[in-house]
Amino acid sequence: MKLPARFEETMKELLGSEAEAFFASYGQPKTTGLRINGRKLGAPAFVSRFGEPGQPIPWAEGGFYTGEDDRPGKQLAYDLGLYYIQEPSAMLPVELLDVRPGHRVLDLCAAPGGKSTQMLSKLQGRGLLVTNDNASERTKALAKNIERAGAAGTVVTNEEPERLAVTFGGFFDRVLVDAPCSGEGMFRKDESMVREWERHSVERCAAMQRDIVRQAARMVAPGGKLVYSTCTFSPLENEGTVAALLAEFPDFVVEPVRTPAEWGFGPGRPDWLNAEQTAGLDAERLATLTGAVRVWPHRSRGEGHFAAVLVRRGEAGAEPAAEEKDSSEKGQAAEEGASGEPGWTFPLLLGPANDDATLEGTARKAKGGRGSETLPKSRKGVGMQPKSERGGEAQPKKKPVAPPARELRDKLLAFAKQSLPGWRPVGRLLARGERLYLLPEDAPSLDGLNAVRPGWLLGAATKHRFEPSQALAMGTRMEDAALSLRLSGSEEAALKYWKGDTLQPDPEGIVGPDGRPAGGNGWVLVCIDGFPAGWGRWDGATLKNELLPGWRRA
Ligand SMILES: C[S@@+](CC[C@H](N)C(=O)[O-])C[C@H]1O[C@@H](n2cnc3c(N)ncnc32)[C@H](O)[C@@H]1O
C-alpha cells in the first residue's frame, strides 16, 4: 500500500524503533468484526441458535472477529437487526463510556450509527439516546440502522452541536464524540482513506474537533462522562484536542483507561504535543493525558484508534442513579395513562408537547417527506401538513387543522389492542402531522431542533386506521402480536418476504401469541427465526407484503 509521504515521515519520527513493525502491519489483513445486538438477544443465545461467528473480541461485549471471506451483511440475521457489522477497535469507545440502562446518552457525531446501536444494546430499552449527525444525507442510514436495531427510546437529530447545546445544556449522563478525523487508522480498512487524507488535512480536522468537543462538554451533566474518540494516529487530533478541552473546561478530568496488557493498547502521548498545543495546561494536568488509550495495528488485533474518557466533576452523588430514574418514570406513566377500558392498560401519556397548539410547529417540519422511510408510500408527502399549509384560506391566528393528537392516539390504541396486545410501551406520545412517535417521558422538548426522528416512529394514523411503521415492527417481540407468521430463515418464504413478494401461507400458519392457529385477519407481524421482520396484511388467503422498498433485499 502506498502511504502518503508526509504521514510516513511523521510516524517514523514518532515511533522510532517501532516504526518498522507499524509499517509492516499494512501488509497484514485488516480486522473485521460484528457485534451481537443485546437489545434483541444476548451473545450466548445468538451462538446457540446460529453458531459462533468467530473469536470473541476481548474488549467488546457481544463482539466477534469475522473472517475476510465471511459475508455477514448477506445473512437474514443482519436484516433482522441481530447484529451490526463493526470494526473491532470501533467497539472500544462505547465500552469505555460505561452506558447503563436508564442513562441519558448523546452520540454527537453518529452516522452511520455503529456506536449508537451499541449504546442501544447497553441501554436495554431504558433511558434516552439522542443520536445526531450534522450531515443530513448521512442521517438516513443512521435512522435506518437505529430502527433495525430497535429504536425505542431514541431521537435522531440532524443538527450542529452548538444548537443541540442550547437545548441540552448539562443534560446527558454520557456523551460520545466519535469525531470526524483524518482517518489514518483506516488506511488498511479502506484505501480510499489514503486519498482523503490529503484532502482533510490534520490541521483542518483538529480545528473542527475543537469546536465539536467544546459544545459536547457543555452538554455533560455534573458527574457525567464524555468519551472522545477518533480513528487516527495524529497527536494534534487526539491528545491535542483533549488538551484544548482540558484547558478550557477546568471541571473535566481524564479518567485513566486501564486494560489488560494482552490487549496490546498503548497509552496517550502528551509528550508528542508541542508547547503551543498544550497552552493553558500545567504539567500535572497535561500528564493525565497518558490515561487515554491508543490502539495500534501492530500491537493489537484491531485498526488504529484513539479514545479518552473525561469525567465532569460534580457534587458527590451527582452521577444519576440510572435504574432509579427509569422506575420512577414507569410508575408515573402507569398511574396516569390507560385506555379507559377494563382489562386493557396502555401506559401512554399525552404530554404537554402533544397539545394541539404544538402540533403546528412539528407538522411543518414534516413537509417534504423527511423521515418517512419507514412508512407506507401512501403516508409520504401529501396530507402530512396541516390544511393551513396546503393552501385554502389563511388562518394566521387559529389553531392548526392537523388531526388532534388525541384522535391519533386513539387510533394507535385501537391498533395496538387488536394487533399488538402484548406490547407494553412506556413514554410520551408526540404527534407530527399524522405520524406518532414515542419518546421517554423526561425527554426535553425538541422544539426548534431538526429532528429526523423525534422519537420512536410508531406509524401514521390515516383517515380510517393506524398504519404501523417498520420501526415499530423491528422494535417489538414476536409474542406481542395478535397474529404472526413464524418463518424459519431456511424457508424460501422468508427470502420471498424480504424481497417484497406477496405470500400465500397455510392459514394454520397465522398464529396467535401462544403459537397456535389464530383465525381472523388484519395486520400480521412476519417473524423469521423468532424475530420480527416487518408487517403483512392477511385477508384469510393472501398475505400482502407491507415491507417498504428501502427495507427489501435486492
Ligand atoms: C467517524 S464518523 C462517525 C462514525 C459513527 N460514530 C459510527 O460509529 O458509525 C464522524 C461523523 O461526524 C459527522 N460530523 C462531522 N462534523 C460534524 C459536526 N460538526 N457535528 C456533528 N457531526 C459531525 C460526519 O458527518 C460523520 O458522520
TrEMBL record:
The keyword Disulfide bond does not apply. S-adenosyl-L-methionine binds at residues 109-115, 133, 178. Residues 315-333, 387-396 have a biased composition (Basic and acidic residues). Keywords: Cytoplasm, Methyltransferase, RNA-binding, S-adenosyl-L-methionine, Transferase. SUPFAM superfamilies: S-adenosyl-L-methionine-dependent methyltransferases. The active site is at 231 (nucleophile). Pfam families: Methyltr_RsmB-F, Methyltr_RsmF_N, Methyltranf_PUA, RsmF_methylt_CI. Belongs to the class I-like SAM-binding methyltransferase superfamily. RsmB/NOP family. This is RsmF rRNA methyltransferase first C-terminal domain-containing protein. It comes from Cohnella zeiphila.
